[in-house]
UniProtKB/TrEMBL annotation:
InterPro entries: DUF3472, DUF5077. It comes from Tetrahymena thermophila (strain SB210). Residues 6-131 form the DUF5077 domain. Pfam families: DUF3472, DUF5077. This is Nematoblast specific protein.
């Protein structure tokens, strides 16, 4: 028998029971500075073996006597946890889990404060599962893993398998985000390639972007250190396209169009790439809204030094770039892919290979999925703590039509 310690800083998220809440960012040290009784703190872990587990809550800071409503919706567990300055480790009793899958434990401050003095709700540091026979029966984001990437959730990818890889100059793709699957932090990347990526993002409640970025050949996360000979050069841009540099994931040139794309529309992406005689390669991105434009509009054209390629390793991905939103599922369809060589010859897309990132590879989270729908195309889904699917990295999806 052993105890399993699940850290809130790696595995907890906030939602609001009303229209507005006052949030404080969840840190690695746990949930603190918490005063709003409308906030619900949800901790997630995955159970592979049914059984009875004892649970307790660990805090390292209690400013006032207070009560928390604790519930686990999937097993109809509900209990009031009463804290005082002596209750840094509080037993929450036993829970019976009958089916494997994700367990969500909710914590919400009650309005019935035992002591009405000012202060915050108890800091939530760790949830402990006791009397666990097999430690592999419980999965969650470990403290040794990145809390940033663990809370973001797994990124998922589709690598397109073409009948010929020689001199692909043009690639087309369509992306549709279904209704209610467009959470903040979503990046539905339509066309990735060896030197960059192109797709659409949800940046906030009021802002969305069509984003096209090209990496510098110099490997650095700090764009200010890129030598002049390694700079990605802008050749052209759309009228409303914003141009800037980027870093922290490699560095290079970034271009984006602030654009109010909506769910349920199959937006069209076109990427052109070819080498030039002076040692560069040119990559140009075009975007089409089928409800607004008769033709594609230019996002930007970039010239990458020390590069002599057409479009290589073409793929798509779906990611969440906001660690505070990793508890919300997102989904995207990728359809009607087309590829052409520099001679204009059509190259067939035979299939797509599914992969995922380290968050899934290291079994920190299981909320990932992918597949193919002959009507809507290939799809990717991630985040939201939905139960584990059978899909695994390396699976190949192929349309029947």
């Amino acid at each position: 028998m052993t105890d399993i310690q699940i850290s809130f800083g790696w595995n907890a998220f906030q939602t609001c029971s009303t229209q507005t809440c006052t949030y404080s960012k969840i840190k690695e040290s746990g949930v603190s500075k918490w005063k709003d009784s409308n906030i619900i703190i949800s901790l997630f872990f995955y159970v592979t073996v049914a059984g009875v587990y004892d649970i307790s809550l660990v805090s390292d800071e209690i400013q006032r006597e207070a009560e928390l409503q604790v519930n686990i919706p999937s097993i109809s567990y509900s209990q009031i946890a009463k804290f005082n300055t002596d209750s840094l480790n509080l037993s929450l009793g036993s829970i019976q889990i009958d089916n494997p899958g994700y367990i969500k434990v909710n914590f919400q401050g009650t309005n019935s404060l035992i002591n009405r003095k000012t202060g915050q709700y108890p800091k939530l540091k760790t949830l402990i599962l006791s009397n666990v026979e097999n430690i592999s029966a419980i999965s969650f984001v470990q403290d040794s893993f990145s809390s940033h990437f663990g809370r973001r959730g797994p990124s998922v990818h589709l690598k397109y398998n073409l009948e010929s890889k020689s001199k692909i100059k043009y690639f087309f793709n369509e992306v549709t985000v279904p209704k209610k699957w467009d959470a903040i932090g979503t990046y539905a990347m339509a066309i990735g390639f060896s030197s960059g990526y192109f797709g659409m993002q949800v940046n906030s409640e009021s802002e969305r972007k069509i984003l096209f970025s090209v990496w510098s050949p110099q490997k650095t996360d700090d764009p200010s250190t890129i030598l002049a000979e390694n700079e990605v050069k802008l050749l052209a841009k759309g009228k409303k396209t914003v141009i800037k540099s980027f870093g922290n994931e490699g560095s290079g040139g970034q271009s984006y169009l602030v654009y109010p794309w909506v769910t349920g529309v199959a937006y069209q992406f076109k990427l052109v790439g070819y080498p030039t005689k002076d040692g560069y390669s040119v990559f140009t991105a075009y975007f089409k809204d089928p409800t607004k434009f008769e033709d594609y509009i230019l996002i930007a054209s970039w010239k990458r030094p020390k590069t002599q390629t057409y479009l290589e390793r073409v793929y798509s991905f779906l990611e969440n770039f906001d660690p505070e939103k990793g508890n919300i599922s997102r989904k995207a369809y990728f359809n009607n892919q087309r590829a052409f060589t520099n001679k204009g010859k059509n190259v067939k897309i035979q299939s797509a290979t599914f992969t995922y990132d380290e968050t899934a590879t290291k079994q920190q989270r299981y909320d990932y999925d992918g597949g193919v729908d002959d009507i809507n195309g290939y799809y990717l889904r991630n985040c939201g703590f939905f139960d584990k699917t059978n899909v695994k990295t390396g699976d190949i999806f192929k349309k029947t039509q």
